[in-house]
Amino acid sequence: MEKYDAIIIGAGMSGMAAAIRLAMFDKKVIVLERHYELGGLNSFYKRGKRNLDVGLHALTNFAPKKTPGKPLTKLLKQLRLPYETFKINEQKGSQIVFPDHTLNFNNEIEFFISEIEKEFPDQVEGFRQLLHKIENYNETALDNEYLPAKEVVRHFITNESLLEMIFCPLLIYGSAWENDMDFSQFVIMFKSIFLEGFCRSEGGVRTIISSLKERMDAVGAELQMKTGVKEIISKDNHVVGVLTEKDEEIHAPLILSCTGFPETLKLTGLEEKLPRTGAMSFTETILFLKEKPVDLGQDSSIIFYNNRPHYQYQKSESYYDHESAVLCFSNNFNTDDYDEGIARVTFIANYDQWKKLERKEYVAKKKDVLQDSIAILKNHLPKWDGQFEFKDVFSPTTITRYTSRFGGAVYGSPDKTRDGRTPIDGLVIMGTDQGFLGIIGSILSGISMANYHGLQS
Amino acid sequence: MDTAEVRQKVLDIIADVALDDDLSDLDDSVALREQLDLDSMDFLDIVMELKKRHKIEVPQEDYPQLASMQSCVDYLTPKFNQ
Ligand SMILES: Cc1cc2nc3c(=O)[nH]c(=O)nc-3n(C[C@H](O)[C@H](O)[C@H](O)COP(=O)(O)OP(=O)(O)OC[C@H]3O[C@@H](n4cnc5c(N)ncnc54)[C@H](O)[C@@H]3O)c2cc1C
């Protein structure tokens, strides 16, 4: 039987990052991944001759080269990757579009403030004070208390419409809670989206994944694909190792898992008192167009769209909710490396409903998603005739099929473990359910959990 | 090993830890933290690299000895020669 210093379950962003850190300092590490591709919730695939990304709308946390102390520069440094590795391009600009107001923003906070000044002049002072609080808040302290963010923010922003517009991008890009988020998570997301901002890797998520993979190889982290873990073995409340779906037993005194909190505990045999399964899942429509979005009248990178008087970030009652959406135009970053135009539409969805569908109904439901995506896109691509070259739609059940996340929960469980600890010694949660998500967040989580549980002790 | 060689060994480590920093006009008497983008996580990396490459252990209470290049060389030279 093979013995390692650490086993990593899942080659998600956090799993790959943790493997690099541990192997860099001569730990014998193996990564076990169930799927045949790396990347987890942000993997990639091919349809016909086209390369698609599962998730990548944008990277958050843009920071120019050599900016000290920012998440992006920090993670590159910790992984010993030169700044140029991720081939980063800034966004052109994004929008929050609500029925009565539109706010534009880019990676300069003063521009966003000027937009707020135009739409909500009496809120600017409060917004500046909120900003001051955010800038001075230590959102990554492992012992922060859980606080509902809207309560805190209402002390500064007294106009509910503005409050909802500020929360909309932050919720839909990273909240496992419905309609609100934890204040630390709010600060993390606020900094990563409004203060640092959106960017994109040339070549999409493949660029990021292949640079992580190269680094894993260089430092000698082992990797086994198509190797799911079916059981985590422990003795006297301490981890011993894992049993794989190939019935191989592998031992290590430390196991770091990025498969999710309830998902990981389930593997230990625990049936009761599992952390809750998250409610938030999505459908995603990806369209390839003959023309570029700019030529069709749209130069925004991302549009957060809501058509209701009050924005709802909650599991949709029906299969999906087309009263709100995220529209992403991957061409609209400083470098456009696509030959075609690309438009992505994300709707909040309901996993349980999708799960019940028979094959034929499922296919029909995906057609509905496509039609509703096209309808919303037409409003934002004024010169588009609705024709496309190629399309793909995926659903909450697709997400579960490829990532094993319970309930298609893209942002994981609402129950996080901030220091990564679980009821079993030596079993650590990282990534999404340690409370750091998105590509940049989960990479950072993998690094900090590897440092904390694997290198410092 | 003389102090110049020790300095070079430390410089090699810092060059890897702070990949994007320019080390050509480092002032040996000034704190590294003030000249380079190094935080506590990075200092830990320097400590771990010393152990990995040169089998030199730096106990936590001695971390302040690594503040500047000069203090690094003063503190580490005897250890390199043990
Ligand atoms: C549609 C969509 C759009 C997104 N858009 C963006 C975006 O624009 N920008 C952004 O920053 N982020 C985006 N995200 C979020 C981002 O992808 C995730 O937050 C991040 O990738 C989570 O990484 P992780 O390390 O927590 O784990 P995961 O990616 O969930 O990785 C877990 C891995 O574990 C594997 N696994 C599960 N069970 C087992 C088992 N038993 N044995 C072995 N392996 C197992 C899975 O196959 C998977 O590879 C998006 C996600 C989706 C789905």
Radius of gyration of chain B: 12 Å
Shape of chain A: globular
What's the end-to-end separation of chain B, in Å? 10 Å
Stated plainly, the CATH topology of chain B is called Non-ribosomal Peptide Synthetase Peptidyl Carrier Protein, Chain A
Number of helices, counting only DSSP H or I runs of 4 residues or more of chain A: 13
The helix-strand sequence of chain B is HHHH
What is the terminal separation of chain A in angstroms? 26 Å
Let me know the average pLDDT of chain B: 95
* Percent of residues in β-strands of chain B: under 5%
Class of secondary structure makeup of chain B:
mainly alpha
- Number of helices, where a helix is a run of at least 4 consecutive DSSP H or I residues of chain B: 4
CATH architecture of the largest domain in chain A: 3-Layer(bba) Sandwich
Quickly count the domains of chain A.
Answer: 3
Which architecture of chain B does the CATH hierarchy give at level 2? Orthogonal Bundle
- Which strand order do you get reading across the main beta sheet of chain A? 8-7-16-17-18-15-19
Give the low-confidence spans of chain B.
none
Note the overall shape of chain B. globular
Describe this structure in words.
The complex is a heterodimer of chains A (457) and B (82). Chain A has 3 domains: 6-84 and 203-276 and 413-455, FAD/NAD(P)-binding domain; 109-196, no CATH class; 279-403, no CATH class. Chain A contains 13 helices and 20 strands. Chain A has helices at 13-24, 71-79, 109-119, 124-135, 149-154, 160-172, 183-196, 205-219, 261-267, 351-356, 359-380, 396-403, 438-455, and strands at residues 2-3, 6-9, 29-32, 44-47, 50-53, 88-90, 94-97, 102-105, 199-201, 222-224, 229-235, 238-244, 249-251, 255-257, 281-289, 302-306, 320-328, 341-349, 390-394, 427-429. Chain A has a 7-stranded mixed beta sheet, with helices on both faces. Chain A has a 5-stranded parallel beta sheet with strand order 10-3-2-14-20, covered by helices on one side. Chain B has helices at residues 3-17, 32-35, 40-54, 69-80. In chain B, helix 1 packs across helix 3 and helix 1 crosses helix 4 (69-80). The longest helix of chain B has 15 residues, at 3-17. The A-B interface holds A 25-26, 65-66, 68-69, 73-74, 76-78, 80-83, 451, 455-456 and B 16-21, 37, 39, 41-42, 44-45, 48, 52. Flavin-adenine dinucleotide (FAD) is lined by residues 9-15, 32-35, 40-42, 54-60, 228-229, 258-259, 263, 282, 284, 399, 403-405, 410, 431-432, 437-439, 442 of chain A. The site of flavin-adenine dinucleotide has 39 residues of chain A, from helix 1, strand 15, helix 12 and helix 13.
